[in-house]
Each structure stands twice: as structure tokens, then as C-alpha cells.
């Protein structure tokens, strides 16, 4: 099996700064945030060299809440459940938008696991590269804040609040991929482990949304070159452990 390396990382820009661009005319906030994180990750890369052998994993706790509101509003007002709105409200619609934007033809996967969404996205991308299903894998985890949904979502959460939004992205590569793009890796990603056993530690990663596991991993790599692992504690008492070298 292949070793898995982190080649590049990125964080989303402010969506308000880019929503007026023509290419985003029909894109949701989630799509804009996720795409922005990938754009930052891919700065300076030959996109064609990566694209021809690249997978994509997207993680999102809530999916496309903006379209969900449109679907529910239309259903309430007209009694018609519009299939196109229902389809576009799903997490997979964000994945499809990114795949078309970046012309990715490798494995495309979407994951959603509440507090562990970011970690599952990293673990899935790690698995794809490690088992040789692709030599590159773009991973992004994203959730957008939609004001109309805040009160309702907060009522359903225990020891957690739906208060923010953001996206982080990581480009993983095998040793073959590294040779192709001529890059030195940031680190080797060893493992992503999620532990459901309760703890009493302070919460680091609510997951819907303060910061997800991908964003916290990106920030950890940027802030401390000596650090080689982070533990992220969740509101329900579970935690995850990300290890690299």
C-alpha cells in the first residue's frame, strides 16, 4: 500500500467577496466556500497534472441548506415537492459542482457524520490514495451558515451550537503523485482515528459549525511545524486523533 502525503492545504475566503463573480451566479454559499478552499489549495499547481489522476472527497454536516429552505418554502406554499430542489439540497450536489468545476474524473465521494464529518473526509481520502485508487485526492469539508436555519438547528443540538461557517481543503498524494508534480510534501498523514468513548475535555470541534476536522488540521499544520498530532474533542464527549510526521 502507498504512503499518503499532504502536498498542500487551503482555507476558504470570505464568500461575500466572490459571490458577485459571474461563475458563482447560481452557486450556493456552501459551493462557494468549498471551491474557495480548493482554489487556495491548488495555487501554483499544474491542474492538468493533478486532474488526470485525482479523486475528490467532500464532507458536510448539513448539505445545501439554502436549497433546503427553497424546497420547504415551495412545498409549504404550493403543495408541490419539486424534485430538482430536493436533488440540489443534498450533499452530493456540492460534490458534483466541484467535480465539474475542477473536471475531476476520479473517485467522487461524499461523507456526513455530524461531529466527525471532517475526520471522515480525511480518512476516506487517505484510504483512496493508500490503496492506489488515485495518486491525488482533494478533500474539502464545508458547512455554510444560513440565518433562517440557525434557531431551528440550535434547538435540535445538545451541547453544541450552529453558529458559523467555513471550509478547509487538503491535497493528498502518493509518492508517484509527488514525483509527477515535483513537490516536497508538507507531511505524511499516518492515521485518522475517531473514538466514541466519552471524555470530559473541553470542546474543540463542534462540527456544525465552529470548525471541522479538516480546517483544524490545516490550521495545525500552519501554526506548528513541530506538532505531529492533534486530538479534537466533541460536544458529545467523543474525540478524534489525527497523526502525521
Protein topology:
Blueprint: E1 5-11, H1 29-41, H2 47-51, E2 54-59, H3 65-78, H4 83-88, H5 91-102, E3 108-111, H6 117-130, E4 136-143, H7 147-156, E5 166-173, H8 175-181, E6 187-195, H9 213-223, E7 229-233, E8 239-244
Parallel strand pairs: 2-3, 2-4
Antiparallel strand pairs: 1-5, 1-6, 4-5, 6-8, 7-8
Helix pairs in contact: 1-5
Structural overview:
The chain is of the alpha+beta class. It has a single domain, classed as 3-Layer(aba) Sandwich (Peroxisomal Thiolase, Chain A, domain 1), CATH 3.40.47. The protein has 9 helices and 8 strands. An 8-stranded mixed β-sheet has the order 3-2-4-5-1-6-8-7, sandwiched between helices. A hairpin with a 5-residue loop joins strand 7 and strand 8. Helix 1 packs across helix 5. The two termini are 18 Å apart. About 4% of the residues have low confidence.
Quick recap:
This protein has 245 residues and is α+β, with helices and mostly antiparallel strands.
- Global outline: globular
Major beta-sheet overview? 8 strands, mixed
Name of the CATH homologous superfamily: Thiolase/Chalcone synthase
> For the record, what CATH class applies?
Alpha Beta
Gap between N and C termini: 18 Å
Number of domains: 1
Structure annotation, total helices: 9
Radius of gyration: 18 Å
Amino acid at each position: 500500500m502507498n504512503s499518503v502525503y499532504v502536498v498542500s492545504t487551503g482555507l476558504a475566503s470570505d464568500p461575500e467577496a466572490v459571490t458577485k463573480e459571474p461563475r458563482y451566479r447560481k452557486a450556493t454559499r456552501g459551493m462557494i466556500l468549498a471551491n474557495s478552499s480548493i482554489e487556495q489549495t491548488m495555487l501554483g499547481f499544474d491542474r492538468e497534472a493533478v486532474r488526470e489522476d485525482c479523486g475528490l472527497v467532500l464532507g458536510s454536516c448539513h448539505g445545501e441548506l439554502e436549497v433546503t429552505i427553497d424546497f420547504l418554502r415551495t412545498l409549504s406554499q404550493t403543495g408541490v415537492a419539486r424534485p430538482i430542489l430536493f436533488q440540489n439540497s443534498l450533499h452530493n450536489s456540492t460534490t458534483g459542482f466541484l467535480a465539474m468545476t475542477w473536471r475531476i474524473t476520479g473517485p467522487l465521494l461524499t461523507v456526513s457524520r455530524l461531529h466527525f464529518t471532517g475526520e471522515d473526509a480525511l480518512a476516506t481520502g487517505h484510504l483512496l490514495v493508500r490503496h492506489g485508487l488515485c495518486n491525488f485526492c482533494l478533500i474539502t469539508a464545508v458547512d455554510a451558515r444560513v440565518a433562517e436555519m440557525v434557531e431551528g438547528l440550535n434547538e435540535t443540538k445538545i451541547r453544541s451550537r450552529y453558529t458559523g461557517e467555513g471550509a478547509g481543503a487538503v491535497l493528498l498524494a502518493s509518492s508517484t503523485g509527488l514525483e509527477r508534480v515535483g513537490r516536497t510534501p508538507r507531511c505524511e498523514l499516518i492515521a485518522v482515528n475517531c473514538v466514541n468513548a466519552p471524555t470530559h475535555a473541553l470542546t474543540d470541534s463542534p462540527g456544525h459549525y465552529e470548525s471541522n476536522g479538516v480546517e483544524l488540521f490545516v490550521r495545525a499544520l500552519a501554526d506548528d511545524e513541530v506538532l505531529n498530532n492533534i486530538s479534537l474533542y466533541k460536544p458529545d464527549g467523543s474525540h478524534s486523533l489525527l497523526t502525521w510526521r
